[in-house]
Amino acid sequence: MELIYRRGRHPKSAQANRYGRARLSAASAMSTMIGTPPSFAETPVSVTRSGDGPDLLSEVLRTVRLTGSVIFGGSFTAPFAVRTPKRWDESAPFAHLHHISFFHLIVEGACTFETACGVRRETTAGDVLLMPFAEPHKFWNGDPPEIAYAPDIIYPGPIEGVVTARYGGGGEETRIVCGFLESSECLFAPVFRTLPPLLVEHTDDGKVGALLASTVREIVTLVEAAKPGSQMMLGRLMELLFVEMLRRHVARLPRESTGWLAALNDPVVGRALKLVHAAPARRWTAEDLAREAGSSRTVLAERFNALLGKPPIEYVTRWRIQLAADRLRGSQESIASIAADAGYESEAAFNRAFKRVTGVTPGRWRDEGGGTATV
């Protein structure tokens, strides 16, 4: 089963640009999701780039370096039931700084999905399921005599790294394509771990649904064609699905939600986040940030604590470390240079802040792959 969830690799990027722009190099951009192309679904209004700051969601997704691909394409006939293994070891080094999500595309037929925590959803052809956690789950149709264990029924498919299965009782067919999405977890706020255990979109729901449908169709076509070079294309398409589903989730969050994604929609905290992300190396004070966000220091602190569980200046520190961690992982710049660009007056001060946030020194972070863990 190790073959199924084989990790992608993050190539070393070229010389990173300075923090003021926080952009990836062209070389890195070829293998890393850097934003939603104009032809894909529109960004919800609440998280769209505005004249006073960056598109925060796209900027964050750049720093965590999304990579993914399709790992399974198979056919099941009713009655059938399949359970999957757990794919994440919390005790592995840097496990808390790493994240894996899984996609399931229902190409044909119908089945029921249930997550490890008991969230259940009836699915039909055209549904796209995002499971943000690498936990065991199961899916079924009908009432089979037993539940098959996924590693026991799979075999290599025509595309390297993509396995397949044909299993079931011979009745109604359900075709499923599965993929994964891998990233670093965010150091400044646990973005991915605040997602619900299951997100579902239907590809026929309006204009955005139609755009999702075209992406799903392209994925299915590539899997079925099994042509050389398909893995690279499949990886980019899975990343596009993830970004679009995340944007739609943010746009639908209720007002009482908490966490970084909910903070994007908050009028006070959202403005403050744009200011910090636009100038992370600036020597921000709570007073300066509150004034420029159009709020009082007290209100800003209250909103930050309510939504993010930390004061504004702590967020500033963690975002600086996030950017520094990305440069340590993706370039050979000196630690002193990275520290200066991050707004620290000395390398020693930077080292202390970095270790406080990540648990390791900048040197160890770079030597051990920047939080990359083995799945």
Structure description:
The protein is elongated. The strands form 3 sheets. The protein has a 6-stranded mixed beta sheet. The protein has a 5-stranded mixed beta sheet with strand order 5-4-7-2-8. It has a two-stranded antiparallel ribbon with strand order 9-10. 37% of the residues lie in helices and 19% in strands. The chain has helices spanning 26-29, 56-64, 150-153, 206-225, 230-252, 260-263, 267-278, 286-292, 297-308, 312-330, 335-341, 347-358, 362-367, and strands at residues 67-77, 80-83, 98-108, 110-114, 120-124, 127-131, 138-141, 148-149, 155-156, 163-164, 166-168, 173-184, 199-202. It has 2 domains: 33-252, Regulatory protein AraC (Jelly Rolls, Sandwich), CATH 2.60.120.280; 260-367, Arc Repressor Mutant, subunit A. A hairpin with a 6-residue loop joins β9 (155-156) and β10 (163-164). The chain is α+β, with helices and mostly antiparallel strands. It has 13 helices and 13 strands. α11 packs across α12. The model is unreliable at 1-53 (pLDDT under 50).
